[in-house]
Amino acid sequence: MTKPPLTVYLAAPRGFCAGVDRAIKIVEMAIQKWGAPVYVRHEIVHNKFVVDGLRDLGAVFVEELEDCPDDRPVIFSAHGVPKSVPAEATRRDMIFVDATCPLVSKVHIEAERHSDNGLQIVMIGHAGHPETIGTMGQLPEGEVLLVETVADVAVVQVRDPDNLAFVTQTTLSIDDTKDIVAALQARFPAIQGPHKEDICYATTNRQEAVKAMAGKIDAMLVVGAPNSSNSRRLVEVASRHGCAYAQLVQRATDIDWRALDGIGAIGITAGASAPELLVDEVINALRDRYAVTISEVETAKENVEFKVPRVLRTPGQASA
């Protein structure tokens, strides 16, 4: 049978960001340096394929530091951790490596700077997300207040409305965050914001690429994990900007083919923790059923690199 034609719009940028790439390299280099097992507190990044691959190399993923033995190295995930975690690792005389994304660390530093200046912090983020927990854990309890929605802004109770600052989780929807920031500024006119946008470049770039293709397509497939905040935001962005159907898939086997029946154009992107191999897998699955023509939609170029911690590098090694 002749395969029906399908135009695949491929988002660029997509997939791994510099922070994710750095975090994965840190785990790989730790295993090379110290041998297996190396412990990792929480998933190093939110992607099952990546985590399973590192587990096969000798990484052991645990939820809390108390699940780690004293005599093996432990790595803190790219999402960041409360200050109490490295403090406890130091108390136990453990070898530990912090794989927190430098852009998340920037938010931590901002929060501390504002606090040192006597300001209470309002954080825009998702309750229970590791990045939110890590950022709020940089300061004593009560110094960082969480808001998730515009409605939360109306009821948040602050110590002094004239001495406030806000920070944001780095993986949020740009559009949602803009509305929440506007609500904060309307209720608290003196509130201070970051010198530079907290939402990371990779989150912004991936969302802009989705917006650029959303009006051209009948459906969107976002390659990413269900616990990946930035991947879930890409699904929402596609739906809000004119795409009739958007689905989050971890692997090609997750595709709901019935929902794609009769389509002529589809968009594909990947969250910042999803490897390109899984994008290729989805494209190949589409080729099995359609006569595929690929058109790349590029809205930005990325050339960001982050160095790995010095403890993992020999003198001759360049940045990762």
Automatic annotation (TrEMBL):
One Gene Ontology term from the biological process aspect of the record: terpenoid biosynthetic process
EC numbers on record: 1.17.7.4
Location of the active site: E131
InterPro entries listed in its UniProt record: LytB/IspH
Origin: domain of life: Bacteria
Keyword flag Cytoplasm: no
Residues that coordinate or bind [4Fe-4S] cluster: C17, C101, C200
Biological function: Catalyzes the conversion of 1-hydroxy-2-methyl-2-(E)-butenyl 4-diphosphate (HMBPP) into a mixture of isopentenyl diphosphate (IPP) and dimethylallyl diphosphate (DMAPP). Acts in the terminal step of the DOXP/MEP pathway for isoprenoid precursor biosynthesis.
Database matches in HAMAP family: IspH (MF_00191)
Name of the protein in question: 4-hydroxy-3-methylbut-2-enyl diphosphate reductase
Species: Thalassovita litoralis
Upper lineage: Bacteria, Pseudomonadati, Pseudomonadota, Alphaproteobacteria, Rhodobacterales
